Protein 1
Amino acid sequence: MKPRHPTLTAECRPISELLARIGDKWSVLVVGLLGDGPLRFSALRRRIDGISQKMLTATLRSLERDGFVTRTVFPTTPPQVEYELTDLGRDLLVPVGALAEWARQNQARVDDARRQFDRQNGVANGRAQASPLSAP
Amino acid sequence: MKPRHPTLTAECRPISELLARIGDKWSVLVVGLLGDGPLRFSALRRRIDGISQKMLTATLRSLERDGFVTRTVFPTTPPQVEYELTDLGRDLLVPVGALAEWARQNQARVDDARRQFDRQNGVANGRAQASPLSAP
DNA sequence: CGGGATCCCGACGGATACTG
DNA sequence: CAGTATCCGTCGGGATCCCG
């Protein structure tokens, strides 16, 4: 079994690191929203239903740290803070958008496979029994 | 359960669900390795440095459940189990490969941005201070 | 050899409450 | 408005033992 693509393992480490950065619960959502243009903190908060202000802050800090987002403070009263994608962030949006498109077009296939798997094994819930993986 | 509102989610929810499935620590690595051809359990274990047998099992179960991987048992002694990508899995490899390629070409830009951010703020570690996000 | 069962810990992430 | 600080539950995931 010789790898026909010798660079595959070399390709997988960067992707793992990238997933460690933006593979969390909210980063991609935020980047996707900012893809339409700059938004203020509350605007993001309102658009992302279910996110806590703590996680939104942390997510934005992380994205800013990795150079995907800029943070601009307007010293008005009350203060305004605007977040905007950098060039790097907009670049990232391309492959992420492709993945999103794939997900949109193939989610039915994945769901079908999952239902079939769950039917063949006696699973009460929608979750693999002895598996700590996968999300609801 | 989390009540999702249809605000933004039309475009971004599929990608979030996909990330919830393959965005974990090992799934993409396994899929990437299987892209070269079927592999046995121990072969995967040996190739993925640092993975525990529990997580490899769980990852493979999850991938099998979602229809990305097939599991074939050969009733030999000792038993052999081979894992192979399905058509869906190979399809997934395309956008994931694109993302991996992006990560490979842009990791320097991300690292530079991160170092600059950490220098501007007084950060002792390589980690954002008040942020629970980002990886070691 | 492949993988199930358990124990355990630290990180992720939600819910307030407080500040400038 | 835009955070920061604190408490706390959940769960990903590593280590270990055991079984067909």
Protein 2
Amino acid sequence: MSTFSAPKGIPEYFPPSSAAFSTVRDTLLRSAALAGYGYIELPVFEETALYARGVGESTDVVSKEMYTFQDKGGRSVTLRPEGTAGVVRSVIEHGLDRGQLPLKLCYAGPFFRYERPQAGRYRQLQQVGVEAIGSDDPALDAEVVAIGDAGYRAIGLTGFRLEITSLGDTNCRPAYRELLQEFLGRLPLDEDTRRRAEVNPLRVLDDKRPEMQALLADAPLMVDHLCDACREHFDRVKGYLVDLGVKFTENPRMVRGLDYYTRTTFEFVHDGLGAQSGIGGGGRYDGLMAELGGQPLSGIGYGLGVDRTVLAAEAEGLTVGDQARCDVFCVPLGDAAKDRLVAVAGALRAAGVRVDLAYGGKGLKGAMKAADRSGARYAVVVGERDLAEGAAQLKELSSGDQRPVPLVDLVGAVHEALALPTP
RNA sequence: GUGGGUGUAGCUCAGUCGGUAGAGCACUGGGUUGUGGUCCCAGGUGUCGCGGGUUCAAUUCCCGUCACUCACCCCA
């Protein structure tokens, strides 16, 4: 006999822990909405060439981590490994960049990378992202960073840090890249690292091995070789971050795995997670619109990992999301009471109250236990005796206080007891 | 792709120096003919990951395999 299991490396969220997941996602989205980012919902797969061109052939994401397959029409399609390329494609396709700029968009959903799973690394990962397209104003860079930071803080996280740097642009990065390659060429590198030095020399800089870090101590850094325009841009971004009260540290060796990044790049790092410590990251991509066939507009965005943010909240001991399934739990004693409470539950829900009821003819003890486990603040108990009097017993579960309420007034009484806004 | 660790009840795990297995949690009922969260009592489940080998006998020892997991790599 065989049973089914979820595909390898894919996390699933179900009650009660799913409350933390959805609350984290919604809170991160809310932070973006507060800055005027409009919601965009996009396909979870695109034609493969979009990622090859947009993200970069040389990246690990494209070269070995994509879920790529042929559809029945013989087209090569790929489950989205990240969000920016798809957003930019949609912006170009639908001419969203013809109106007021910057165009500000946010999204949430699953992304897919074929990697070996481990703590905090999944094959289906959930991100909340934003993209702001059509302005290279450094204040916009600061805004994007700040709403990411604000999103984490709204969840209650405090144990993370923000690292930023500038990767330069097409004006200054090629010269720096040569300088770095020249430097790396003089080092005794192993074969893998030497290959990386040729394909993407910047990535050699954040090698974790201590002996490599020692070798790289005197390596030239991009931030020391920025052109005047990039230098000024970076300085102004940092100035705005100070104005916004966002704390950050500079990490001149930070590297991003996607080729499109230019100038400002940043990462949110949490130390409570094990090896996969990045909970979110992003940056500028000033060449991407043109690369994908659109106007030569600049852009900046981020992707925040919902799964890892949930893990970070757990690591900090935070309780995120409403742990209660409902506000009121109905306990009927006998068939007549049950018939009445089924209707009462419907009326309460119509008034915006979350209600559950003891189904299946549970005994009183069992029904009260179910009420307790549901997390409800109140139980509504109705038996034959109450029915005869036209009353229900409204019991506050935390205190045990119970009082009779006329059945006809129950919706109003519950509404008042829960202090809900009047409809 | 490369290493290490672990597979026993729905969950978290104990255990058997080889004689087919247990505790807590959870669930259901009762103690309380109409009151939960504490307490007490009762109830049920396991192809001991899978396949092969050694043995009178394997969940235990050996080999293989698969799965999960952590780390490298890379990233959210």
Protein 3
Amino acid sequence: MGMDFYARVRHILESIPSGRVATYGQIAELAGAPKRSRHVAKVLKSAGQALPWHRVLGAGGKIRTQPPDQQAQLLRLEGVLVSGERVSLKQFGWTISPLAFAD
DNA sequence: CCGATGACTCACG
DNA sequence: CCGTGAGCCATCG
């Protein structure tokens, strides 16, 4: 058997490039469990700074961490434009072939 | 086993 | 755009 969901999520998170963002739902889908976006959030919460947690946003590109300031700042440091608590997925959304994590 | 929980998401008003 | 409610599902006590 292969990696479990949590290991897959960590692996995927590590490949999000600086200056790009992904959503909880997108990560869950890539990890093969589209209904588990809440669990992706759980991984991020417990992983601390070991993972690029700031590059993950809620649906539509909204910052969900509370307070949102720190995440917004980290994103800006890598060139991501944050308007209010929003990031345009159109411009900064990470896109990758699902086949890249097909195993 | 049961109920509560959560960095979620979507539909609806 | 902002709730609200329902659906979701592993984890915890």
